[in-house]
Amino acid sequence: MSYEGPQEFKINKIGSYKGHDVYASDFVSKESVGMMHNSGSIMIRTEAYKILQSKPEFLKRIFEHEITMGAGHDPHGIDEETREVLQYLKDNGYDFGDFIF
Hints:
Layout: E1 11-17, E2 20-25, E3 34-36, E4 42-44, H1 46-52, H2 56-69, H3 80-91
Parallel strand pairs: 2-4
Antiparallel strand pairs: 1-2, 3-4
């Protein structure tokens, strides 16, 4: 494995949800799809956001999941509603990297 130095990540504000700013960025790992940043903002991987734009109710589920789980990078469980979103992403070509659900 080689190290290429610091990477630059583009972060685009895409809106807000329940008082939290929401950003799309490849800073979020493929495996995570979304995360609650320590600043209180919600981040979603750009590829996932593009797929889920046509399914606003699925975007809402991701945002709700991140708010409920809180900030941090610790892995957390996947409820059935979130699993449905992940399956939709998979069915639409999303690359989860090493993550298997």
